[in-house]
Amino acid sequence: MAPRTPSAAVLVLHGGYENGTEPPPPGLLNLPGTRMRPFVRALRRATRAPDSGLENGAHVLVRQVRYAHRGWNGSRADALHDALAALDALGEEAGGSGEGDGVPVVLLGHSMGARAALLAAGHPLVRGVVGLAPWCPPGDPVTQLAGRDVVLVHSSRDRITSPQATQSLTTRARRAGARTCMVTVRGGDHAMIRRAPAWHRLTTTLVTGLLGTGSLPEPVTAALGLPPTAEPTEGTLDLDRLRPRRGTAGLQPSP
Fold first, then answer.
1. Residue 130's closest CA among 146, 151, 154?
2. What distance in Å separates the CA atoms of residue 240 and residue 186, rounded to the nearest whole number?
3. Which residues contact 229 (CB under 8 A, 6 or more apart)?
4. Helical H runs in the chain?
5. Looking at residue 102, what is its pLDDT?
6. DSSP state of 26
7. Cβ distance 118 to 143 under 8 Å?
8. Which among 61, 70, 178 has a CA at the least distance from the CA of 119?
9. How far apart are the first and last CA of the chain?
10. Which of 1, 34, 68, 129 has a CA that sits 20 to 30 A from residue 28's CA?
11. Count of C-beta atoms within a 10 Å radius of residue 81
C-alpha cells in the first residue's frame, strides 16, 4: 500500500528555560516536554477521526521539535534554530520543496516554544501559530508574522510569562499584517494544569481550525478578521464566553 499523502502538518514545540546549554533530560524527566504530551495525543485523535474533514488517503502529520539545549540562551536563540531545522526536515518528510509549495504547517508552542514558533513563522511552510502561555519579550520582531494566522492563549493568572505582553504582541503583529487573536483563560496557570481539559479542547479546536480540518469558534474567526487599526481589546476573547457552533464540541466552560 502506498503511503498516504500528508494534507497538512502540526509541529509541536514544548517550553524550556531562559538559560541552559545542557540538553533536555530524557523521557518523562523532561517536564516541559511531558506537559505537551496530552496536546499531542488530542491532536492525533482529532485528525484521525472520521469527521476530521480530511479527504480519503490524506492525513495530518504531528511532529515534535527536539531541542539540542534546554534554554533559549540570549542571542543564541537555540530553540529558534531547532524549530527552523525541524521545519526543513518536516518539509522533506512531507515531500515538499520548502519553497512554499509544500505541506502547510501550523506551529503549536508553549512558553519558550511559543516564542520560537512566533519567530520561526516566516518559514515558507508555516500558515499559522497557536501559542500557549507564550513568552513574548517586547523587543521581538513581528514582521515575519505577516500573512499568518496567530492565536495566542494565556492564563489571566500566569506569573511566569506576561498576558499583557501577549496582548501587546497580538496588536503589533496585526498592524504588521498578521491575522491575530488572543484568548484569555480565567483561573488557569502557566503549566496549564488548572483547567487542563479546557486547555486541551481549546488548543485542538484552534489547531484543527487553522489547518482547515475543523471549524474555528465564530468569535475567533471574527477577531482574525479585524483590521490592523483595531484596538487591543477587540482581538482579546474570554474562553468562558466562547460557544461552540451547532454540531461541534469542546469549548464549553469547564472548572
1. 151
2. 8
3. 175
4. 31-35, 37-48, 78-93, 112-120, 163-175, 196-211, 218-224
5. 81
6. S
7. no
8. 178
9. 46
10. 129
11. 15
Cell numbers 481550525 correspond to 209
CB 67, CB 78: distance < 8 Å: yes
- Determine the average pLDDT of the residues in 111-140: 97
Q: Which residues contact 62 (CB under 8 A, 6 or more apart)?
A: 9, 10, 12, 40, 43, 44, 47
Q: Which three cell numbers stand for residue 248?
A: 461541534
Q: What distance in Å separates the CA atoms of residue 176 and residue 170, rounded to the nearest whole number?
A: 10
Question: Which residue, chain included where needed, has cell 509549495?
Answer: 101
pLDDT per position as a tens digit, 44-73: 999 886 555 555 445 899 999 999 999 999
Beta strands across the sheet bearing 105-110: 58-64, 5-13, 105-110, 126-132, 149-155, 179-185, 236-238
Is pLDDT at 93 greater than 50 in this prediction? yes
Instruction: Please report which helix (H) or strand (E) contains residue 238, including its range.
Output: strand 236-238
Name the residue among 68, 65, 66, 70 with its Cα closest to residue 20.
Answer: 70
The contacts of residue 121 (CB under 8 Å, 6+ apart) are 107, 129, 144, 145, 148, 150
Cell of 245: 457552533
CA angle 141, 142, 145 (to 5 degrees): 140
